[in-house]
Amino acid sequence: MAEAWHEGLPDDAFMSEADRVYMAEINRVREGLASGLAFEEAAALIQEQDEGVKAAIKDDVLKILIAEEHFAKGVPLDELALRLALPGAILETAKKSMLEEVVGDGSMRDYLQGLDNDEPGRVDA
């Protein structure tokens, strides 16, 4: 079979420069966490100068971690908070923000209402 025209291009070939910078900053924080830094220490590695963008990156990394660890792997938020050296309330707030972003979708609302009170995705228990 013939090689597709896009084979061999880098993964970010179709990303804007802003998206490349954003992904690099996300990865920088993740690498810091992987090396044992607390969340705020890893977030201090962000090189972006714009404080609004920096805050959005921190918020997004936290939401990514909650999605990966809490929702996908079932890690309790309090355990994740300890690992990140953050107050549990910060993770709870981020989790609720994540879910509020999708709760407008009726199917997501139905899903959340169908969860048992002790399931990780439950927000109103």
Q: TL;DR of this structure?
A:
By secondary structure, the chain is mainly α. Helix content is 62%, strand content 0%.
Describe the structure.
With 125 residues, this protein is mainly α. It has a domain at 17-87. It has helices at 17-34, 39-43, 51-72, 77-84, 88-103, 106-113. The N and C termini lie far apart (54 Å). The model has no long low-confidence stretch (mean pLDDT 85).
Which blocks of ≥5 consecutive residues have pLDDT under 50? none
Beta-strand content estimate: under 5%
- Counting helices, strands and paired strands, the structural category is mainly alpha
Rg over alpha carbons: 18 Å
Beta strand count: 0
Tell me the overall shape: globular
Overall pLDDT metric = 85
User: Sheet with the most strands?
Assistant: none
Q: What count of helical segments does DSSP give? A: 6
End-to-end CA span? 54 Å
Instruction: Sketch the topology as an H/E string, one letter per element.
Output: HHHHHH
Helix content: 55-70%
Task: Present the secondary structure layout.
Blueprint lengths: L16 H18 L4 H5 L7 H22 L4 H8 L3 H16 L2 H8 L12
Helix pairs in contact: 1-3, 3-5, 4-5
